[in-house]
Please model this.
Amino acid sequence: MDIDARGPRFGAAVTTAVLAVVLITGNVWPLVWQTLCFALGAAGGVARSPYGWLFRTVVRPRIGPPTEFEAPEPPRFAQAVGLVFAVLGLIGYAVGPEWLGLAATACALAAAFLNAAFAYCLGCEAYLLVRRGSARVG
Model:
């Protein structure tokens, strides 16, 4: 079942804000939260993530029904990619090196910002490349 295309973009906007707070303040706790959000989005799909719930219950009723839909698999894969970067960020902040925490968090922030601002999902594009590559092999 396809999902409202505005949902992942909303989630990316919230993710951008959360990760910016991490980099600006140096506080790792918002990264812990974001890692959990990525894990839930990767495991259950973006519609079942905390930001998906927030979009569905608070935002969508105020902006009306969807006009554009997308397959759930690419955004779910993007959540898994975000999870990898968030975990690397946590490792860097917790045990070092600190530059790893900064770099991984900054990469996740850049990807979230691209999706939020320009509707360009790097993780979704990676998903499509992986699918094309596996179709050629199989």
Remarks:
- The beta strands are 3-4, 69-70.
- The radius of gyration is 15 Å.
